[in-house]
């Protein structure tokens, strides 16, 4: 149930999948599939988040074929330039017409030891370069048992928003770590409860206008069979999709959730 003024956002995080040639084939086929299904482009914002090595190729394709997908990166450096081997600056991403960048994904937190301080610095780096940070927050099964569903995501988001201006555009993505890749999604009510709580954090930190405008996504075992039930919830404004975003027909069906029975 999209709230007026918040265009639903369906974002595909490819993670470490698809080389630049596979990316071309995928994006073209996704575009054709949506056109064949007579998908109304403006009804949902579609964003793809390829690996760094695909970004230039996908940007060129989107531009040349006038494909109405937004482009996003999966990470960025907290630094703008300098002797940081292997890092990618937000300045570089902006030059490639990236609109979004994922920050604080649970896999970055888990495998690269990115704490709240690193996430906050990366949010600032994104905003410096005109990128919209997609700030990921979520709890593990251990966190859920010890603290409940909202405590860890609330603390993570509060830290990430430190120093963010009230008029900054951000996206918040609630991804319960216990649901990612498990096949066991949160229930729509669980997602709604946490997303509503996270919107309240945005209201507290950035003000009520920001909370009204900010899109809060759900991520974690999202698929065509369950997306409509999440999107009926008033505080769920879209989805950050992992594995299902790598399957053209499945991702197209997720994007077209408004056509599903009962929505």
Question: Mind explaining what this structure looks like?
Answer:
With 263 residues, the chain is an alpha/beta fold. It has an 8-stranded parallel beta sheet. β2, α2 and β3 form a beta-alpha-beta unit. α1 runs parallel beside α2, α1 packs across α11 and α7 packs parallel to α8. The protein starts with 8 loop residues before the first strand and ends in an 8-residue tail after the last helix.
**N to C succession of SSEs:** EHEHEHEHHEHHEHHEHEH
What is the overall shape?
globular
* Biggest sheet strand line-up: 7-6-5-4-3-2-1-8
Number of helices: 11
Distance between the termini: 8 Å
Unreliable segments of 5+ consecutive residues: none
Overall pLDDT level:
94
Largest sheet: 8 strands, parallel
CATH architect. name: Alpha-Beta Barrel
- What is the number of domains? 1
* Category by helix and strand content: alpha/beta
> Would you identify the CATH H-level superfamily?
Aldolase class I
Put the structure in a nutshell.
The protein is of the alpha/beta class and about 260 residues long.
Task: Looking at this protein, list some descriptive labels.
263 residues, alpha/beta, TIM Barrel, eight-stranded parallel beta sheet, 11 helices, 8 strands, 41% helix
């Amino acid at each position: 149930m999209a709230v007026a003024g918040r265009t639903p956002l369906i974002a595909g995080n490819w993670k470490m999948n698809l080389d630049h040639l596979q990316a071309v084939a995928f994006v073209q086929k996704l575009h054709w599939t949506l056109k064949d299904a007579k998908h109304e482009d403006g009804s949902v914002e579609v964003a793809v988040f390829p690996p760094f090595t695909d970004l230039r190729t996908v940007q060129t394709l989107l531009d040349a074929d006038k494909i109405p997908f937004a482009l996003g990166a999966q990470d960025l450096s907290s630094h703008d330039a300098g002797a940081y081997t292997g890092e990618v600056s937000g300045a570089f991403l902006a030059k490639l017409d990236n609109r979004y960048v994922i920050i604080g994904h649970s896999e970055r937190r888990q495998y690269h030891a990115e704490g709240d301080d690193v996430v906050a610095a990366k949010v600032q780096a994104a905003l410096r370069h005109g990128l919209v940070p997609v700030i990921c927050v979520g709890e593990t099964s251990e966190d859920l048992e010890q603290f409940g569903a909202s405590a860890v995501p609330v603390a993570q988001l509060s830290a990430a928003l430190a120093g963010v201006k009230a008029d900054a555009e951000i996206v918040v993505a609630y991804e319960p770590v216990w649901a990612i890749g498990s096949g066991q999604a949160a229930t729509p009510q669980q997602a709604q409860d946490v997303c509503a709580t996270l919107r309240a954090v945005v209201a507290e930190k950035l003000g009520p206008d920001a909370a009204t405008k900010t899109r809060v996504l759900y991520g974690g075992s999202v698929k065509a069979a369950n997306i409509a039930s999440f999107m009926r919830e008033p505080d769920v404004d879209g989805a950050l999709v992992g594995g299902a975003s790598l399957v053209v027909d499945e991702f197209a069906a997720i994007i077209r959730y408004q056509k599903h029975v009962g929505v």
